[in-house]
Each structure stands twice: as structure tokens, then as C-alpha cells.
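> call design_seq(struct)
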């Protein structure tokens, strides 16, 4: 997967409003198009997609608690829990949940369009076009 970049005026900004770009150079070009002048600083960062996650363990904890509350002690020990290992075959369940959740997000048009931004180490100084 190719890296994508974004830019902002201040590293402390919570929201970077300038979108994604294929390269650092495209960020700088966009910053100039937004009125940044030679000598001014901008911060450029690498965009990392946010991937939502549902926890199989949490879901099984909830279903176990619900069963116990609804029917009492006869539900104890369901779903099967192996001491020190966790729920039986939880890894298989997690794979299925991840797959179904991704499909549901795509089908309903709810795939996150937001992302993390990891700022590069140092701000970039806009250079003179003649440089």
C-alpha cells in the first residue's frame, strides 16, 4: 500500500483540513496554492487508516452475562471458557466477526473516511520556486 500524506499549519492541530496527497511534494504544492509563502513552515504527516474493531472476547462476555441474567445459574459456563486460554476457539470467532463487520461497513457505506496522522519529525519550510 502506498503512503499518503497530509499537511497543516501547526503540529498541535487536532484536525488536519487539507486532505490526502500521494507525496510530500504534493503537500507542499497544495500549501503554496493555499497561500503559503517561501520561508513559512508547514507540518507534513503520514496518514494511517483507522480500522474499527469488534472484540470477540467482549461480545462473548456480554452474551454470557445476558444469558446468566435471563435464565440464571443454568447458563453458567456458557459459552465454554478454558482457564488461562479464554473462550474456546475465540480466534475463529474473531476472524468471522472481522470479516462480517468489514462487509457490513462496506455495504452500508460506513467505512471510516477519517484517519490517524503521524507527523514527520520536522516542519517543512516552503522554499522559493526558484530554488
Amino acid at each position: 500500500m502506498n503512503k499518503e500524506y497530509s499537511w497543516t499549519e501547526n503540529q498541535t492541530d487536532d484536525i488536519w483540513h487539507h486532505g490526502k496527497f500521494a507525496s510530500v511534494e504534493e503537500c507542499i504544492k497544495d500549501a503554496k496554492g493555499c497561500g503559503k509563502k517561501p520561508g513559512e513552515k508547514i507540518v507534513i504527516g503520514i496518514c494511517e487508516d483507522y480500522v474499527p474493531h469488534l472484540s470477540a472476547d467482549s461480545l462473548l462476555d456480554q452474551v454470557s452475562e445476558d444469558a446468566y441474567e435471563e435464565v440464571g445459574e443454568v447458563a453458567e459456563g456458557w459459552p465454554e471458557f478454558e482457564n488461562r486460554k479464554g473462550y474456546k476457539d475465540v480466534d475463529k470467532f474473531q476472524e468471522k466477526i472481522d470479516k462480517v463487520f468489514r462487509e457490513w461497513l462496506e455495504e452500508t457505506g460506513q467505512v471510516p473516511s477519517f484517519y490517524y496522522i503521524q507527523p514527520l519529525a520536522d516542519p517543512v519550510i516552503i522554499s522559493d520556486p526558484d530554488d
